[in-house]
Amino acid sequence: MAREPERRPYFFIERTEIPMTSHMEAFIQITQELLGSEQVRMMGRWKHHGPITTLDHSLFVAYLSYRAAKALGLDERAAARGGLLHDLYLYDSKDKSAHPGWQCFDHPRAAARNAEALTELSEKERNIILSHMWPLGGALPRSPEALLVDLVDTFCAGLEVFRIYHPSRLRKRLGVQPLTAGT
Predict the structure, then answer these.
(1) Do residues 113 and 159 lie in contact, with contact meaning Cβ atoms separated by under 8 Å?
(2) In terms of pLDDT, which residue wins out, 164 or 125?
(3) Fewer CB within 10 A of the terminal residue: the chain, N end or C end?
(4) Smallest Cα–Cα separation from 65: which of 139, 167, 161?
(5) Measuring CA to CA, which residue among 139, 145, 138, 90 is closest to residue 114?
């Protein structure tokens, strides 16, 4: 009697170490200063969409925004940096005492304040952060890059909420270590 093959999830995908691509290396070059900062890595402490941390979500948005901006001939640096910093609000969004008002309306301003304290932002990067919740948030996207990050953020959130993709795989592949509560 023939033995049935072992059933594994994703049986058609060979789980091997995938090397970093040239796109990933270029993305790391652009965001290296930010990825090394304690504030950005602290985003790994808080959940954003279900089990997804704010760091994993922000890396996902930043990387896809970078790739899309590059493909469209837009400012990939602004898209990557704005995408990485768009949710740099640094508090537990489920803790109502941590922030005033409604999270979806207020967190872009908190993220922009934290990003400006962390690094010098271009006007385009600042607008990317402030307008990433448009049309819910107050700011209007004033550049193609800002609109791009807004759309990519919505796309990534959908993939995360419906458990289609878990961006921690991207974080691990990029070699980014989060700061958790114990570190």
Answers:
(1) no
(2) 125
(3) N
(4) 167
(5) 90
The 3-state secondary structure of 100-143 reads: CCCHHHHHHHHHHHHHHHHCCCCHHHHHHHHCCCCCCCCCCCCC
pLDDT at 103 over 80: no
For range 131-142, the mean pLDDT: 85
**Tokens encoding 180:** 């958790």
How far is Cα 86 from Cα 55, in angstroms, rounded to an integer?
Answer: 10
Write the pLDDT tens digit of every residue in 137-169: 778 999 999 999 999 999 999 998 888 888 888
Q: What are phi and psi of 6, to 5 degrees?
A: -65, 130
Torsion of CA 164, 154, 102, 59, to 10 degrees: 70
* Domains of the chain with bracketed CATH: 22-89+100-174 (1.10.3210.10)
Tokens of 144: 């193609």
Task: Find, among 170, 147, 29, 165, the residue nearest to 86 by Cα.
Answer: 147
Which tens digits make up the pLDDT trace of 81-94?
Answer: 999 999 998 655 56
